[in-house]
Amino acid sequence: MKGAEALLKALEREGVEVIFGHPGGAIMPTYDALYDSPIRHILVRHEQGGVHAATGYARASGRVGVVMATSGPGALNLVTGLADAFMDSTPVVAITGNVPRALIGTDAFQEADVTGVTMPITKHNYLVQDANDIPRVVKEAFHIAATGRPGPVLIDIPKDVQLAEFTGSFEAELDLPGYKPTTKGHPKQVERALEALEKAERPILMVGGGAQHAHGELLAFAEKTGLPVITTLMGLGAFPGNHPLWLGMPGMHGTVAANRAIHHADVILAIGLRFDDRVTGKVSRFAPHAHTIIHVDIDPAEIGKVVRTHIPIVGDARLVLKEMLKGARPLKLATWWRELEEWRTRHPLRWKPKPHLQSQEVIRAFFEATGGHAIVTTGVGQHQMFAAQFFPVTRPRSFLTSGGLGTMGVGLPFAIGAKVARPEELVLDFDGDGSFQMTLQELATLVKYKLDVKVVILNNGYLGMVRQWQDLFHAKRYSEVYLADSNPDFARLAEAYGIRGIRVERKEDLRKGVEAVLHADGPVVAEFKVYHEEGVFPMIPAGGAAEDMILENPAEREEVEA
Amino acid sequence: MRHVISVLVQDHPRVLNRITSLFARRGFNLESLAVGTTHQPGLSRISLVVSGDDRTLEQVEKQLNRLIEVLKVTDHSEPHVERELCLVKVHVAGVEERLAVKDIQEAFRARVVDVAQKTLILELTGDSRKIDSFVEALRPYGILEVMRTGAVAMSRGERTLKVRERREVV
Ligand SMILES: Cc1ncc(C[n+]2csc(CCOP(=O)(O)OP(=O)(O)O)c2C)c(N)n1
User: Fold this and answer.
1) Closest Cα to residue A51, out of A385, A403, A402?
2) Burial of B14 by CB count in 10 Å (0-12 exposed, 13-18 middle, 19+ buried)?
3) How confident is the model at residue B164 (pLDDT cuts 50, 70, 90)?
4) Average pLDDT over residues B125-136
5) Does the active-site annotation cover A384?
6) Which partner for A294 in A311, A339, B107, B164 could form a disulfide, CB atoms 3.0-4.6 Å apart?
7) Considering A14, A68, A87, A110, which one is annotated as catalytic?
8) Residues B64-82: pLDDT tens digits?
9) What is the enclosing helix (H) or strand (E) of A59?
10) What is the pLDDT, as a whole number, of residue A457?
């Protein structure tokens, strides 16, 4: 057996069913072995699409996503996707070919120091020097990727190692003496946390992506205690978006209720989140009344990294919540809830209707037509925030977006990965005209594998989010954000790929358009031409605090007053 | 504040790279770094001198601990021994300078490890402050080269940075 065959066997033993990838010289022995392997391969058109698809697969399924690429250019095309998976703690294993060992370091054809390049954006990486190490390395890579704080792991295998005769064993043992994630929260701290909540007058529960797998325990804990729940962008779906205890998303484009709740909270229980600056704003002004912050995270390095933590609990969100649930009691929060209710009813998420079709109403229409029952993916920009605001998903693993890195172009490949992972689900990609064009070649992947993904492009003819900042902070100097003069006809573009294309331009055609998308047989690219100068509100300017929240577009307010 | 940190690592290729890349990426201030093997096969020990406030130091430790190949991290705040080795090549023009340098050598208990017609190489071990003063004392005589290893440190008494039970490294 060759190293390449051993690699695929080892992957099989990890339960890998599908690999996203793109071949090339240095990975050819493995592609040759793949020809006889039961593992399914999805050929993407760009390695970035492959790694994002593997990320989407992982996020939608809770399993490890796998991507494969050749050396040098192929491997380097993974960089953005690995960084994205790293920032959002997604378990991905990337396998790359490298030039033969004898050529490493000689600037050989298609050589790049891929382990060096990916060191700061992977949880760990390997350069395999001996074919007999393959089973152990694969086993370790999957273990590292999926346990503790999940993350991407890269395995770089020189071509001659793939070709070398494998004489080792598959019963390899993990050799990770320095890797022992703490999963069970300290009982004393759990007790202290419960006590703090009992004494609190204005407690809140903040939840991030690290609690997606803990949704059952989270729901039970929130319902038992009656705590108000806030979910970050990465936490969307971890708690049902239609639940009366849910206050929405915090931060830059969060709800008034969520941000005010944080501002006035005396005790904060934060689970599986890392206090990103898009959530905290200016840290020194974040949660000024919170005398107790309880932070539950599996990664000890997250605790105290950004905000002062009074009760640190290192552990897995699910296990910790399970423990907390045992001692949880209904809290007396009637007064607090009256305040929250007031903010929630006075300041719901809304938009100012215009004669033109608007992104918010398009997303809302899809939400209504589907009952919120879909896996949603997004690009990055205004449409992403509108999707977060107006498509409040109710189930975990169903809002896939790039939170930490904010990577434009993830929408379509995330959707591909999600559809491969959960083919029975409706997968909707809300994309921007800018974001979509970063990875649109993956339409070919939809065609090739008949993946029924519905792409909804909210075409505002701009790099909208950048334009919004130029509006607000750069005196409307629209420097290099105009796309409409050179955008393709998206519907015809889709048709060129053999995919159904739909275009909706007028308000009155919205329902019909939504129905056409949802009832189409197979993949669709639907372009909704939306109002070109929309803004996302509420908004807390970068580096601001809850009190600096801008509730609506200042320009529009002036118009009304004038 | 200056801190001396000891890190026990698996001596895999690139592990040093991972550590320096971590310092670069996180903007930690690394003043010196010294590495060597230990009595336990497969394990190396790294001494780092880092400066920063308590919060930064806490992050340094925690981020180091996140690295898969890091087994243990200790910030030597407890009583510890700290040593650095330094070689200094000085220019000695005449007898007078030679005698003056010899006085400094004796005062610091340094050793002469190379004698040439116009140069001397002196060797000194001690904590970093002692070495600073030694170099300063020699400066007027025309220092040609200074080579310092960076500090290494060890806790006093029973405390160790050993890992108890360990399988053979494959
Ligand atoms: C790869 C990448 N490049 C640049 C940016 C900076 N950026 C953030 S939002 C945005 C505009 C996105 O435009 P579009 O996808 O059309 O969405 P819209 O905001 O118009 O809804 C840009 C350029 C980014 N996030 N990612």
Assistant:
1) A402
2) middle
3) low
4) 97
5) no
6) A311
7) A110
8) 999 999 999 999 989 999 9
9) helix A47-61
10) 98
Q: How far is CA B134 from CA A328, B47, B95, B112, B122, in A?
A: 64, 22, 20, 14, 10
Is the pLDDT confidence value at A561 over 60?
Answer: no
Nearest to A47 by CA among A537, A554, A439: A439
Pairing outcome for strands B43-51 and A375-378? unpaired
Q: Tell me the shortest Cα–Cα distance from B3 to chain A, in angstroms.
A: 19
Predicted confidence (pLDDT) at residue A558 exceeds the cutoff of 80? no
For residue B158, what are the contacts with CB-CB under 8 A and spacing of at least 6? none
A83's CB contacts (< 8 A; 6+ apart) are A121, A405, A407
Asked if A47 is an active-site residue, the reply is yes
The SS3 call for residue A446 is helix
Residue A156 confidence (pLDDT) above 50: yes
Question: Number of CB pairs < 8 Å for A and B?
Answer: 50
pLDDT at A562 over 70: no
How high is the pLDDT of residue A14?
Answer: 98
Q: What ipTM was reported for this prediction?
A: 0.92
CA distances (Å), origin A252, targets A409, A536, A537, A546: 21, 10, 9, 9
Separation of CA A271 and ligand 1 centre (Å): 29
Measured from the Cα of A432, ligand 1's closest atom is 15
| Global model pTM greater than 0.90 | yes
Q: What distances in angstroms separate CA A428 from CA A262, A370, A454, B133, one per listed residue?
A: 31, 10, 5, 69
Look at B14 and A144 and tell me if their CB atoms are within 8 Å: no
Q: Which residues, 6 or more positions from B85, have their beta carbon under 8 angstroms from its beta carbon?
A: B123, B124, B125, B148, B149
pLDDT value at A227 more than 90: yes
Other residues' Cβ atoms within 10 Å of the Cβ of residue B159: 13
Among residues A5, A14, A47, A302, the one annotated as catalytic is: A47
Q: Alpha-carbon distance A145 to A516, whole Å?
A: 40
Could you tell me how many residues make up chain B?
A: 170
pLDDT of A46 strictly over 60:
yes
Tokens of B64: 């180091």
Q: Out of A465, A529, A537, A549, which one is annotated catalytic?
A: A465
Mean pLDDT of chain A: 97
Q: How far is B74 from chain A (nearest CA, A)?
A: 14
**Is A127's Cβ below 8 Å from some Cβ in B?**
yes
Q: Whose CA is nearest to atom 18 of ligand 1?
A: A464
Catalytic status, residue A465: yes
* Secondary element (H or E) of residue A430: strand A427-432
Q: Which of residues 244-303 of A touch B (CB under 8 A)?
A: 299-301
B71–A178: do the CB atoms touch at under 8 Å?
yes
- Specify the residue for token string 């051993």: A6
Q: How confident is the model at residue B165 (pLDDT cuts 50, 70, 90)?
A: low
Residue A502, min C-alpha distance to chain B (Å): 45
